[in-house]
Design a protein that fits this description.
The chain is α/β, with parallel strands linked by helices. It has twelve helices and 15 strands. Strands 6, 7, 8, 9, 10, 11, 12, 13, 14 and 15 form a ten-stranded mixed beta sheet that branches. Strands 2-1-3-4-5 form a five-stranded mixed beta sheet, with helices on both faces. Strand 14 and strand 15 form a beta hairpin. Helix 3 runs parallel beside helix 4. The N terminus is likely disordered. The structure holds ligand AOF and zinc ion (ZN). Its EC number is 3.5.4.26. InterPro entries: APOBEC/CMP_deaminase_Zn-bd, CMP_dCMP_dom, Cytidine_deaminase-like, DHFR-like_dom_sf, Eubact_RibD. GO terms for molecular function: diaminohydroxyphosphoribosylaminopyrimidine deaminase activity; zinc ion binding. Keywords: Hydrolase, Metal-binding, Zinc. One of its GO terms (biological process) is riboflavin biosynthetic process.
């Protein structure tokens, strides 16, 4: 009985330290792409002697910071890492070698790295060096931490959830004056998690503030503006780009861009036809792992993108925010396009979150 108790305590401890790794990793939310979020904790005799996380692509990995923090105490210690340690020379040297050199005796890994250059090779290298390796502690949590990174590694496309708001009577809210004006703190926190957000050009034409993450120092995703109205590209009011992030306009308007647009640091890409393939390829080329398709404003601008995204299986996550307002039916309904697709679309792995401002439901769509 005593042995069983000891084993289950050890398992609980593994979970505890892995959750701490995830907590540490999350300090860099929004800043690591194309790299993953990774946290590492070094534990010796039940005491945490080192902690670290990966702050930004190009900078040292989580293990390196944690080992530095632990110094000589890493000797014979256990290293917890939310992602399999790398075993390759990328922008930084292999973490496996750093762990071996530090003489840790055990490594507990949250999940195998889906990067084909790394997958299982890190674990193998550590085992070959005589280090005990446990894989798959708090695996689901570690996977949810890096949903965009994993998605991009496996599909070659950025992760592309679709977000929209509904009134309590089930109508779409454009949030540009149609019933509700503020999405509250939830929306601001959501934005921080994304590398880019696709928004409607009505933020320009209605002279509204472009949505920004509110907390000081928070990640400001790149604003990708869909601009289908040929008459208004030259009427972008000054001060639109008043947040610290980058803005890029995708337009099928061939008219020459007004100098004021470029003066605001806004890049413009003119296309024959705005489509998701071009937008996602652009994001991919910039190393962006996550793009939020944020349906607000001029719904018509999104309809084709939504249709394309669902048909091509680019959109697999839905984020629905129900706000405490009652409103008239909005026309056109931006997701009416879904009705023309196959019946019986079902969302899986639902999660919901309720606050005083809203109820948020997230779910996955599998074709
Ligand atoms: C780890 N710990 O903290 C991270 C890892 O170009 P590099 O050198 O930064 O390598 C990037 C790859 O390394 C990335 O695609 C992923 O496979 C892994 N990231 N690995 O052991 C970390 N950030
Ligand atoms: Zn590494």
């Amino acid at each position: 009985f005593g042995v069983l108790c000891a084993a289950s305590n050890e398992e609980n401890d593994d979970g505890f330290y892995m959750r701490r790794c995830v907590e540490l990793a999350r300090k860099a939310v929004g800043y690591t792409s194309p790299n993953p979020l990774v946290g590492c904790v070094i534990v010796k005799d039940g005491i945490v002697v080192g902690e670290g996380f990966h702050p930004k692509a190009g900078q040292p990995h989580a293990e390196v910071f944690a080992l530095r923090d632990a110094g000589d105490l890493a000797h014979s210690a256990t290293a917890y890492v939310s992602l399999e340690p790398c075993n390759h020379f990328g922008r930084t040297p292999p973490c496996t070698e750093a762990l071996i050199k530090a003489k840790v005796s055990k490594v507990v890994v949250g999940m195998v790295d889906p990067n084909p250059i790394v997958a299982f090779k890190g674990v193998e290298r550590l085992r070959d060096a005589g280090i005990e390796v446990v894989v798959g502690v708090e695996e689901e949590l570690c996977k949810s931490l890096n949903e965009p990174y994993i998605h991009r590694m496996l599909t070659g496309k950025p992760f592309l959830p679709l977000r929209y708001s509904l009134s309590v009577n089930g109508n779409f809210l454009d949030l540009l004056g149609n019933g509700a004006t503020d999405c509250g703190g939830y929306y601001s926190r959501l934005l921080q998690e994304y590398d880019a957000v696709v928004i409607s050009s009505s933020f320009f034409t209605e002279k509204l503030k472009v949505p920004a993450s509110q907390e000081p120092g928070a990640n400001q995703p790149i604003r990708i503006v869909i601009h289908k109205d040929p008459s208004s590209l030259n009427q972008i009011p000054p001060g639109m780009n008043d947040f610290t992030g980058k803005m890029i306009i995708f337009t099928d308007n061939k008219a020459e861009t007004a100098p004021e647009v470029a003066q605001q640091g806004i890049e413009t890409v003119a296309l024959d036809h705005i489509n998701l393939d071009v937008i996602l390829d652009y994001c991919n080329s910039q190393g962006l792992c996550s793009v939020l398709l944020d349906i607000r404003g001029s719904f018509g601008e999104f309809e084709e993108l939504v249709k394309e995204g669902i048909k091509k299986n680019y959109i697999n996550k839905f984020i629905t925010e129900i706000l405490p307002v009652w409103n008239r039916r909005s026309e056109p309904d931006p997701l009416q396009t879904l009705k023309s697709l196959e019946q019986g679309v079902k969302l899986l792995n639902l999660k919901s979150k309720a606050s005083e401002q809203s109820v948020v439901i997230e779910g996955y769509f599998k074709c």
